[in-house]
Design goal:
five-stranded antiparallel beta sheet; alpha/beta; 13 strands
Length: 232
């Protein structure tokens, strides 16, 4: 849903996003937005900051009171304070006007990917056992055993990172996505960068951490877990 009082922008973005198979709803103010939310299944809101009545900050705060629907905020003002306030209120991303429609499309896709990862059923993510190359990850007991059956000690952050990789094997995951998945597991927040965690994890599961075969780095992308994973 696009929430903007500029008719031209609503029309432009509706036509542009429709070409990429998105179903687009528009609203000119908060009242129209909430009416649309009551009757439509909205996956993401593109929310302008400057609106008649409640502004984008107010509407973002009201949405977050009872909904986790992803929000991308748009504004003609490029002040850092506005961007920070929007993010602190719960916006998922922020884009200043004027903007390139292709950049907006890329941000829409990225936010929707992160949202999809967060929305996996907790019971599906947190329970059961995952296996790869003879290794076993017990998601219930939070244990990792090597091919010989020996218990491998992992910190909470390392375990959550490995579980995230194994649960999304074969998919490139950005650092932001890995953090989102870990938070979705109600786990401890990583106290160090993802890169440091990956380096430590490689030393524990790779034959040669300097030439990793399981957790591979994707240039300008993130990481990919290349092993075949089975759920038991």
């Amino acid at each position: 849903m696009i929430v903007d009082d500029d008719e031209q922008i609503c029309s432009l973005l509706s036509k542009f996003l429709s070409r990429y198979d998105y179903r687009v709803t528009t609203a000119r103010d908060g009242k129209q937005m909430f009416r649309a939310l009551e009757v439509s299944a909205i996956d993401l809101i593109i929310l302008d900051l400057m609106l008649p009545g409640d502004d984008g900050f107010d509407l973002c705060r009201k949405i977050r009171a009872n909904s986790s629907v992803p929000i991308i905020m748009l504004t003609a003002m490029r002040e850092d304070t506005d961007r920070i306030i929007g993010l602190e209120l719960g916006a998922d991303d922020y884009l200043g006007k004027p903007f390139n429609t292709r950049e907006l499309l890329a941000r829409v896709k990225a936010v929707l990917r992160r949202s999809a990862l967060r929305q996996r059923p907790p019971e599906e993510i947190m329970s059961g056992t995952l296996g790869f190359d003879g290794w076993r990850i017990d998601l219930t007991k939070r244990e990792l055993r090597n091919p010989e059956g020996a218990l491998v000690q992992l910190t909470g952050g390392e375990f959550d990172l490995l579980a995230a990789f194994a649960d999304h094997a074969g998919r490139v995951l950005t650092r932001d996505q890995l953090l989102d998945i870990a938070r979705g597991r109600a786990s401890e927040v990583f106290d160090r960068s993802i890169d440091v965690q990956v380096s430590r994890l490689r030393r524990k599961i790779e034959v040669d951490p300097k030439e990793p075969l399981l957790i591979k780095t994707v240039r300008s992308g993130g990481y990919i877990f290349s092993a075949n994973v089975t759920r038991f």
